[in-house]
Write a structure and sequence with these properties.
The chain is an alpha/beta fold and about 325 residues long. The chain contains twelve helices and twelve strands. β1, α5 and β2 form a beta-alpha-beta unit. Keywords: DNA-binding, Plasmid, Repressor, Transcription, Transcription regulation.
Length: about 325
């Protein structure tokens, strides 16, 4: 593949190579007639500026790394898409780094981040190890984390504890007393925070809670945890799920295997409000995290850090809204 070069544009327009460069460099001076000839030739040939080469010369890659473990799962996928949209709008080039889960995959992802001299790094909730943060900080790369806490980094967090307290209180006020919460054995910091706040609030109301955990924070994890919970003699009448994927697995087990009714026998609240939550099969009551809002906050923190590297870490907290559907109506 051979891309159209600036030299070819110059030849067709009948101008110098430097005139082409000046035409496509903001703030430089070029005669209106020359500019018109260059733009016409560029359009005819299908020429575009080589941003990669320009970035190398200016020592600015304009690449922004979006780092995630299992970025295809649940809310993380929608957040990664929203971040890409916001970054492209500001003229950045998003590059998604899937950290993988083996040592070789982690090492390859780390080399990719540093080798491409990313302008900044945004790390999503999940389980990228501490080595990613340390590597970025050693190389002076601006770092924004979403859904977790790391020292000396800018943060965007959801109001996990506020939402979880609201879920426990809503169940209690609706007369539910056999409560359960489902997380996972490999819980992210956000999932752990949701579990903990729900347990604490229920305890303060004098209600005991059964804890269920699957292998991971996904549909299969919800299925595994639900089967364990509903195999017990005393079955929950209300379940708070740490994310929607878990809730979907739980709801399918409750309806298809235990033959209990939702919400009459078992009320369910999820977290995230992914698009599937509104599907007729689920109609899940859940806390909405707006991926676009979180992405915009993260990009704003990144820009703030790029403009003022010496500022103290910034912190944004986005409080989720409870979206009422059919799985539980307070």
């Amino acid at each position: 593949m051979r891309f159209v070069s600036a030299e070819q544009v110059a030849q067709l327009a009948g101008v110098s190579r430097s005139a082409v460069s000046r035409t496509f460099t903001p703030g430089t001076s070029v005669a209106p007639a020359t500019r018109e000839k260059v733009l016409q030739a560029a359009q005819e040939l299908g020429y575009h500026v080589n941003d990669l080469a320009r970035g190398v010369l200016a020592n600015q890659s304009r690449l922004v790394g979006i780092v995630a473990t299992r970025p295809e799962v649940g809310f993380r996928a929608h957040l990664a898409a929203a971040l890409a949209k916001c970054l492209i709008k500001r003229g950045s080039i998003p590059i998604l780094i899937n950290t993988g889960q083996t040592e070789d995959e982690l090492l390859a992802a780390q080399k990719m981040l540093i080798g491409h001299r990313a302008e900044a790094i945004i790390i999503l909730s999940g389980s990228p190890p501490a080595s990613f943060f340390e590597l970025a900080q050693r190389n002076g790369q601006p770092l924004v984390v979403i859904g977790r806490s790391e020292p000396d980094a800018d943060h965007v967090r959801a109001g996990n504890s506020e939402a979880s307290r609201k879920a426990a209180t809503a169940f209690y006020e609706s007369g539910r007393r056999r409560l359960a919460v489902i997380g996972s054995n490999t819980g992210t910091p956000s999932i752990i925070e949701r579990e903990s706040a729900f347990l604490s609030t229920a305890g303060s109301l004098g209600v005991s809670v059964v804890v269920g955990r699957g292998g991971d924070s996904d549909y299969d994890g919800g299925v595994t945890a639900a089967r364990a919970l509903f195999s017990q003699t005393i079955k929950p009448d209300a379940v708070f799920c740490a994310n929607d994927q878990i809730a979907f697995g739980l709801m399918d087990v409750v309806r298809l295997e235990t033959r209990l009714r939702i919400p009459e026998d078992v009320a369910v609240i999820g977290f995230d409000d992914v698009p599937e939550s509104s599907w007729l099969s689920y109609r899940l009551t859940t806390f909405r995290q707006d991926p676009l809002t979180m992405a915009q906050r993260a990009v704003a923190l990144m820009e703030r850090r790029l403009e003022n590297p010496g500022l103290a870490p910034g912190y944004e907290r986005v409080i989720p809204e409870l979206v009422i559907r059919q799985s539980f109506r307070p």
